[in-house]
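Many introductory courses stop at the sequence. We go one step further.
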Amino acid sequence: MTLTYMSGFGNDFETESLPGALPVGRNSPQKCPYGLYAEQLSGSPFTAPRDSNQRTWAYRIRPSVLHGGRFVKADQGLWRTAPCAEYELPPGQLRWGPTPIPDEKLTLVQGIRTMTTAGDAGAQGGLGAHVYVATASMVDEYICNADGEMIFLPQEGALRFVTELGVIEAAPGEIVVIPRGVKMRVELVDGPARGYMGENYGGAFRLPERGPIGANCLANSRDFLTPVARYEDREGPATLYMRAQGALWKTQLSASPLDVVAWHGNYAPYKYDLRRFSPVGAILFDHPDPSIFTVLTAPSDTPGMANIDFVIFPERWLPAENTFRPPWYHVNIMSEFMGLLYGQYDAKPHGFKPGGCSLHNSMLPHGPDMEAFEHASNVKLEPVKLSNTMAFMFESRYAQRVTEYAATSPILQADYPDCWSGLKKHFDPNRP
């Protein structure tokens, strides 16, 4: 399948899959071309300021009011939504190994396993951090999330997101963001798949401000890709799943809901290759804060305290002199959920595996394990490149609660805190 994309983050795009399907000069004409229906999908209140107003006009074969409406509860499996207080763990640093890919048939919706939740989806604040495993494509099934924006990070196996606004394929090392309310079907591209999914219950992700960094580096808007219009005019029984009010619902359809022939606007799914991120860092001494690795941010109502910061730790050079180069020990008011897409994370040489994840909650100390500390404290300081590595972090102002699945899973590494137990006392008041 050859896919075509438009580039630029947050741009007001226009695209049509039939010539003349997009009305010119008016959003809702008395009669749309080709007998289509005009429908607006709003990702923000109508009165939101222009720079944060998100909406897309879709010209579709059938209006969404025909996409079911008589919903019944569906089995949500291990997918949970905040607030979720089904299990209580004492405070502590937590780490999990990779989730095994099962032999049983699972679509992506069935294979979502929630690890942590925070905030309150109904109050439009907080997040859900999930892993997913999938062994089968969705066939005549569709999913729409009314509770939050979703960010997917494939770790093993590529995925095809067939959305109502176009088709996106993503392989490990790329991310896909699906806005709240966009319908889609998810297919496997090259066999079973595993990865991570974050749910953003708050305002939409956007690019962070660069401040004194200036006009370049970090994630550049031109590298974000949005699909062109591609419609399905297919009749026959199908199921639409809706994630809403913390539950999974389903309704029966008589045709595919992915029937948008043309659209224009700035509220659409997009993908980004994390390897196009241009990192910045210290070039003389000391260690910048990890905020310099922010790819996307979802701000909260408190300036500087994000609902979610999506941060990555990609391959990069470490040239600083007289500097402890791995992440330093710290206690942070923000909570941190981390995952590893590939390679090795420099602060945890062993135990933190691709496909695994960790949680360092609000005000819990963490940092390099003993091996990483001893090596970094004594290694010769010369320029070193961290190659073939990609870790990520969901950082949030909200403390994260662990689900029952995550707390009782056999992949939970109960001995994780022991990675610091060998740290020695080096203090000597007689030796400056």
